[in-house]
Amino acid sequence: MNLFDRFILTLYSLALVVISLFVMATSLNLISSTYITSAIEEIYTSSQVGMIYFVAAAIFFLISLKFLFTSVRARGDRGRAGVSVHNPTEYGDVRITLETIESIATAAARRIRGIRDLKARVRAEENKTSIHVKVTVDGETPIPGLVEQVQQVTKERVETIAGLAIAEVTVLVSEVAQPGTGARVRRVE
C-alpha cells in the first residue's frame, strides 16, 4: 500500500469514527431527535445541502470500492505465498515455495552482464516446474546470446541450489534500456 492509499485510509477511518460516535450518541439519546429530523428535512428541501451529502456519500462509496478491490487483489497474491514445489528425497519430503525459487532465479540472472532489470515468475504444474523471466536489457549486448545465457544460468542455478528439475526457462525481453535514462544496472558481482 503506497503513501497516498495510507493517507486516504487514515482519513476514511477517522470519518468512520466520527460517524460511529454520532450513531452511538444518537442511539443513547445524547443527540436531540429534533436536530436529526431538521438535518434530514434540510437534505430534502435544500438542493445544495442534498448535493453535499450526495458527493460525500459518493466519495465514501468509491473509496470503499477501491479498498475492497485492493484487498481482494492482495488476497489473491497472498494465496500464492503458500504454494510450494514438492521434492521427495531419500530422507523425506522437501517443500520449496515458489517465492524461494523466484528469488534464486532472480539472483542468478542479475549476475549476467547486459541485464538491466528483471522479474522472475515460477509456474509449478503436476510434473514440471518452469520459470518465466521478463528482462530489460542494456541494448549493447546481443540479445540472442544474452537470452540463451539467462536461460542456461537460471536453469543451472535453480537446479543446483533447490535440487529441482526445471523443465524450461522462457525469457521475454520487454524493454531495451535507453542510454542516458539514468536506469541503474542491477547486478551482483
TrEMBL record:
Keywords: Membrane, Transmembrane, Transmembrane helix. It comes from the Bacteria. The lineage of its organism: Bacteria, Bacillati, Bacillota, Bacilli, Bacillales. The chain crosses the membrane at residues 7-31, 51-69. It comes from Aneurinibacillus aneurinilyticus (Bacillus aneurinolyticus). The keyword Membrane applies. This is Alkaline shock response membrane anchor protein AmaP.
